[in-house]
Specification:
CATH superfamily of the largest domain: Ribonuclease Z/Hydroxyacylglutathione hydrolase-like
Radius of gyration: 30 Å
CATH class of the largest domain: Alpha Beta
Distance between the termini: 54 Å
Number of helices: 30
Structural class: alpha/beta
Largest sheet: 8 strands, mixed
Strand content: 15-25%
Shape: globular
Number of domains: 5
CATH topology of the largest domain: Metallo-beta-lactamase, Chain A
């Protein structure tokens, strides 16, 4: 099979897996599989025994041309019948597409009809091997368990299925590969979104564990050995390095971020360096290269080299937990080694396509893995463009040009996926990756050497650790400084459009860099003519507004708003319940810095998104109540504030805070509440925003006790706009709404809402004051603008 066929086969298989549900509506899965094999058989009939002439991708300029000598030899050996390239391509693509759709639906049907799904709901005891390390969450821990035996009141049976295992409290002392027993309630997920996520991983049910007990290590000797090596390396890292550096090294070497400092994790993500903490093909190459070098020094034969190389790759894949990016790189390395052993090395395109086909046939659920998608996209970008881009930068030193070309190619490759899922690409990514490149290799090699030496002779390990600290500290400082650099970001609305558009840009860019393609003159003229308009409109969006403007973000069940003044002052009020959403929304608005953040109180639906904001943007001061709270989200916020070295103030009623041309008149709290209906809600910072004659009351989640205290104190609550307290919950005085007497009342609320917000009686009380009620669950992001004509509200969905 020619080299260009495998990438097209992989793409067709991928498309079939993605559209399996739609195809299943017309063709049963078993019929789709049969049709796929029939089409592939037709393709085999069309294929010649040896293809003569240049490769199709070579002709298109997308892969390097074969050397003249090789081409001559190839031409002399070309035999066999004449093939129809179109018929061959159509047969292959159609066959792999139908095979993918049928096979994918078969596997999903198997998950939905599995034994565990049929048993739920039930109290069961299960025995199995952990497929992932347990991870701590906001309310407990979770992991993926491969179940080999299940017992219930109806009896016991053996099986091979997976379950999402979760529990309360601290992390149990178990790790990936361990055999465990667990008892608890087996349930079908009640949340459709979570159920869909689990099915995309080949799981149908979740289990809430009452107890978990480790039976022993993995029964697989390779997994046991890898687990022991991983544990030994981790302990050695912790002995000879400080906690921050040992956590960073575990991420760099093994993709294990369980001990990574939270602030460092945010900095690496904010600079686009997060991929360094997920093992990839680069890690596989760094491990395989010295091993193969040793094999050459020992003058091992081809078979011995192949066995040693394949064993090294397999061990590293198991050691790092079989992450999708490592699986892709490992299978590619295995195919390449096999080709060398057989004396038939293949092009990078063929190796990559073959790896994707093998992995998707073995595990069709990988098609939904974002990690796998990013890994394949980065590889496509590098194979297609890294070399040509580096060649165009011949004025730079060759290592620098190659590093820059590789980084640019990988970033172009992953951009469509990032914009589709995460809606954001930091503008500093390219510079940060280029600056990090010289330090990653030394940090990884010296760190691993220090850990290995520390296991044998502690003083030698300590000495090597001091050398490793230089590149490690450099990476830490680089990520920290560049995370808040005032550089714009690329953002999108997410979904299918940026994915499709990004793929088109990727193909056009690949043609341009490989073939020197130039767009038609009319296109260049149009771009040059529209460029000033684009720059002008972008500058207007990024600059201060002509009037006081407030963006109320749709953060589902939570609060988040940005205040922007004509003088350029910017105040963020709360950060919503999503770790990334508010930061991405700010980047989309062109925000480069924030003068003040008001974290109104300690509840997660108001502050979970703030640590990422602190990591990405320079912030002047954080205002928060300062009342004690044991919640993990509040601890994360305080840790992020300390990590970024940002000043903190705990305002009280009567304080007046000036932020540029904005005045924040604090009305509550007078102190920290004790034994009220909800102490954290009543601890909320309530302030009246004042800009010239314009006024807005941000009431946070203040409840009846706080509202009554403000009214009793004669606080100036009257305002043109009211951010309705507690998402419209039944915790407000009707008299409070009458005292505010707002023209516009904004309800920040999600739908569906677990708490029944907003309450109809509360909405009626607000409407009785004559206020216009607007809601984020109905209008999406809401923009309130003040002008000489009055107050206007614009909805994102209007």
């Amino acid at each position: 099979m020619s080299a260009w066929l495998l990438p097209f086969a992989a793409a067709a298989l991928w498309a079939g897996l993605l559209t399996r549900s739609a195809v299943a509506g017309f063709v049963p899965p078993w019929v789709a599989v049969l049709l796929g094999f029939a089409a592939l058989a037709c393709g085999w009939l069309f294929a010649p025994r040896i293809l003569a002439g240049p490769d199709t991708l070579e002709s298109a300029g997308l892969v390097p041309l074969q050397p003249v000598a090789m081409a001559a030899v190839s031409a002399a050996r070309s035999v066999g019948r004449r093939a129809s390239p179109v018929a061959l391509a159509v047969s292959l693509v159609a066959g792999m597409f139908m095979l993918g759709s049928g096979w994918g639906e078969f596997r999903h049907d198997g998950v939905r009809a599995g034994m565990l799904a049929r048993m739920a709901p039930a109290h069961v005891e299960v025995v199995g091997s952990l497929r992932t390390d347990p991870k701590a969450g906001q309310f407990g821990w979770s992991t993926l368990l491969g179940v080999s035996r299940v017992s219930s009141s109806a009896g016991a049976t053996s099986l091979r299925e997976s379950v999402w295992l979760q529990g309360d409290g601290s992390l149990p002392k178990i790790q990936r590969g361990d055999v465990v027993e667990a008892a608890g309630m087996l349930l079908e997920p009640s949340d459709p979104g979570f159920a869909s996520y689990l099915e995309s991983r080949g799981v149908a049910v979740e289990m809430s564990a009452d107890e978990v007990r480790r039976v022993g290590p993995s029964r697989n000797p390779l997994v046991r050995f890898a687990g022991a090596a991983r544990l030994a390396l981790g302990r050695s890292f912790q002995r000879i390095f400080d906690p921050k550096e040992s956590g960073l090294l575990m991420g760099l070497a093994l993709g294990d971020t369980s001990n990574l400092d939270e602030g460092m994790a945010r900095d690496f993500k904010a600079t686009g360096l997060g991929h360094l903490l997920a093992v990839s093909g680069e890690n596989v190459a760094m491990v395989l290269a010295p091993v193969m070098g040793l094999a050459m020094m020992l003058r091992l034969g081809p078979a011995a080299k192949f066995g040693l190389g394949l064993g090294t790759v397999a061990f590293f894949v198991v050691l790092t937990g079989g992450e999708p990016s490592v699986l892709r790189a490992g299978v590619m390395a295995g195919i390449a080694l096999t080709g060398v052993l057989l004396g038939r090395p293949r092009s990078s395109w063929a190796v990559m396509g073959g790896a994707v086909v093998i992995l998707l046939l073995l595990d069709p659920f990988l098609v939904s893995s974002v990690g796998f998608q990013l890994s394949v996209a980065a590889t496509v970008g590098m194979v297609a463009m890294a070399g040509p881009l580096a060649a165009r930068m011949s004025f730079l030193p060759k290592p620098v040009a190659m590093a820059l070309g590789t980084s640019m190619a990988a970033q172009i490759g992953v951009a469509p996926v990032l914009l589709s899922y995460f809606r954001w690409i930091p503008g500093v990514t390219l510079i940060a990756n280029l600056a990090a490149f010289p330090a990653v290799g030394p940090a990884l090699v010296l760190g691993l050497a220090a850990a290995a030496a520390g296991l044998v002779f502690a003083p030698l390990g300590w000495a090597l650790a001091q050398a490793a600290l230089v590149p490690l500290r450099y990476l830490e400082i680089l990520a920290d400084r560049m995370a808040t650099a005032p550089v714009g970001s690329i953002t999108s609305g997410g979904g299918l459009r940026p994915l499709v558009g990004g793929v088109v840009v990727l193909l056009v860019t690949a043609l341009w860099v490989r073939r020197g393609w130039r767009p038609p003159r009319v296109v260049l003229v149009a771009v040059l003519a529209l460029m000033p308009l684009l720059v002008w409109s972008t500058a207007l969006r990024a600059g201060p507004p002509s009037a006081l403007t407030i963006h109320f973000f749709d953060v589902e069940q939570g609060d988040g708003a940005l205040i922007t003044s004509p003088g350029g002052a910017q105040v963020l009020v709360d950060g919503g319940p999503d770790p990334e959403l508010i930061a991405t929304d700010l980047a989309a608005l062109g925000v480069k810095r924030i003068d003040a953040i008001v974290a109104t109180h300690q509840h997660a639906d108001h502050i979970v998104g703030l640590p990422q904001v602190l990591a990405r943007f320079p912030v002047g001061v954080v205002l928060e109540p300062g009342c004690t709270d044991p919640s993990p989200s509040y601890a994360d916020l305080l840790g992020a504030i300390a990590d970024e070295g940002i000043a903190v103030r705990n305002p009280r009623a009567g304080d007046v805070i000036q932020v540029g041309d904005l005045t924040l008149n604090v009305l509550a709290p007078t102190g920290c509440y004790l034994n009220s209906h909800s102490d954290p809600n009543n601890d909320s910072i309530v302030f009246r925003l004042e800009y010239l004659e314009d006024t807005v009351l941000f009431a946070a989640d203040a409840e009846v006790e706080s509202q009554q205290a403000m009214l009793d104190a004669g606080a100036p609550v009257a305002s043109e706009v009211l951010k309705v307290p507690h998402h419209g919950g039944d915790t407000s005085w009707p008299e409070f709404f009458g005292a505010v007497h707002a023209q516009i009342a904004v309800v920040s609320v999600g739908q569906p809402n677990d708490y029944g917000h907003p309450v109809l009686g509360v909405l009626a009380a607000i409407a009785a004051t004559g206020a216009q009620i607007v809601r984020t669950d109905e209008g999406g992001d809401l923009t309130v603008t003040f002008s000489n004509e009055g107050v206007a509200v614009e909805s994102a969905t209007a």
